[in-house]
């Protein structure tokens, strides 16, 4: 029978049928960060459970650390205790930790793929909703809360109900100036912030096959903003070439065995999905959010919507509150809205290709005088690679601050925040109320769009900059 | 986990779509505050005005709803971040049940780990409960009976709700999930032995 990629990973990972539609699912890899990871390791110790398989667990500090140049784990005093706790518990339990300044450290979902920890066909969890990012490697990766994280650390398993299958096919070719970030924001705008609830999403089609691994990780990163705990792209030669030789990827004969397994995983022709959606990649324009949910998104040429046009009362209430929070007026074009801050970074868009895309717009240009602009590479490796290419110098010359790897302004849990009332174009994944700091106003966009906003000091169609 | 059998009280309406877990609890509160201290910070961005005073328009600040054990919400409640602190904050603020048309998947799962009951009802029903409650100036009580799987509205209408049996039983008995899985250690060891033979690469590459 024809089967999907998701079924081909899920089914063999079922350790036991628990009845009533529940399965005990084996988890092959666990990622920990300073916020949820330190707490989980502490609580599991208090509960008296040893770690079932510390060799399958990998940790790094990212959320509660400063991104200031020259930072240490003490720079943000509020997070120092968390990082210290993570270090201590990791050492006690044998969990591998990639610490500040060390090759491997970075945003946990940049670190995992980069180290070859995340492999096609494996199951992976982290106490972080953007764990779905890792599905870009062809893994089944999903975010969980603190209790479920403890459960996995203690047992290497998790009772789960099998989600439904949703496929989103992007056929055709992406237009110039349109990025993976725009692909997924377009889908969220079209299908809604809950379209994927209860589903594992597979992204497929010619425009997805054409993406680099970095692009696929970006695409999968926003699955949770569409409601789906997991998003995935079938691994192919692009994946295998990217993965080969990475630190924890199989080597030699093991690589060959893995490759033989991986080549059998893509969805079979004729396999059925609970929902199957189609997007023509040629229809996608650069996207920008206007409100406080990722579904509040427009093509950059669009007009800010009127709550009286909302499809239902709950959305009318949400749109009204969002416009008030964002200080925007219905009917006005979104382009031209003045911005104060620009942030390039986060587990969505902090990889080397993202930095190159932004740098391509910045070359020979300068950040507008009233704009504060930060670039925060996703990992120590990304930072070093970018510096080897001279991207740090280019960003600095154009007026950006070049900072240390971490979550930084995406999450504002590290002493770094966009000031109250300030408007920020951000390459991150959440425009929620207060996400980038109390009162901060966030507009989500691609790295190229963020760079364009930095240069012009306003929300700008990057395609016009490229033509200039 | 705390047991849950039922609850009665005024149901506080917060009928806005896509209330995310960042809005329920700000992340810096999770950096600096223990699990038990979060209740006072629940919905702080809605509850407080920029000058730090209470926002009189926010539903949980209104006298009739200050002690509501039930929250009525819009679709996709608890979307976004996986922070279980959202559940701890709601429970710390006295909420034991959220009724909404739909929930974020991770928040939904986290609720059952802590003894907070999320009930999915059609949007019109959630709205009607809100109208019945507000029509009585908050005096009307809503009752949740988990054993019977029924919500009784202020006007006495009985609305059945669906809940997964495993989750219902765990709530009623306050079961510890980890202890249950530990009883499967034999199955887990057998699975892992088979998998180490079949997928040696998945194990050996991280040794």
Notes on the structure:
The complex is a heterodimer of chains A (468) and B (207). By secondary structure, chain A is α/β, with parallel strands linked by helices. Chain A folds into two domains: 5-275, Aconitase, domain 3, CATH 3.30.499; 287-467, 2-Layer Sandwich (Aconitase, domain 3). Chain A has 16 helices and 19 strands. In chain A, strands 5-4-3-6-7 form a five-stranded parallel sheet, with helices on both faces. In chain A, helix 6 (180-191) runs parallel beside helix 8 (213-221) and helix 12 (352-362) runs parallel beside helix 15 (447-456). Chain A is globular and about 55 Å long. The mean pLDDT of chain A is 97. Chain B is built from ten helices and eight strands. Helices cover 37% and strands 14% of the residues of chain B. Chain B starts with 5 loop residues before the first strand and ends with a helix. The longest helix of chain B has 14 residues, at 185-198. Chains A and B meet through strand 1, strand 2, helix 3, helix 5 and strand 8 of A and helix 2, helix 5, helix 8, helix 9 and helix 10 of B.
What percentage of residues of chain B falls in helices of 4 or more residues? 25-40%
Question: Which class of secondary structure composition applies to the elements of chain A?
Answer: alpha/beta
Strand content range of chain B: 5-15%
Question: What is the helix tally of chain A?
Answer: 16
The number of domains of chain B is 2
Return the CATH topology of the largest domain in chain B.
Answer: Aconitase, domain 4
Q: In the CATH hierarchy, what is the superfamily of the largest domain in chain A?
A: Aconitase, domain 3
**Strand neighbour order, sheet with most strands of chain A:** 5-4-3-6-7
Order of strands, main sheet of chain B, comes to 1-6-7-8
CATH architecture of the largest domain in chain B: Alpha-Beta Barrel
Report the CATH C-level class of the largest domain in chain A: Alpha Beta
How many β-strands of chain B, per DSSP? Answer: 8
In CATH, the architecture of the largest domain in chain A is: 2-Layer Sandwich
Radius of gyration of chain A: 21 Å
Question: What percent of the residues of chain A sit in helical stretches (DSSP H or I)?
Answer: 25-40%
Largest pleated sheet of chain A: 5 strands, parallel
Helix- and strand-based class of chain B? alpha/beta
What distance lies between the first and last C-alpha atoms of chain B, to the nearest angstrom? 35 Å
Enzyme class (chain B): lyase
Protein name (chain B): 3-isopropylmalate dehydratase small subunit
EC number (chain B): 4.2.1.33
Catalytic activity (chain B): (2R,3S)-3-isopropylmalate = (2S)-2-isopropylmalate
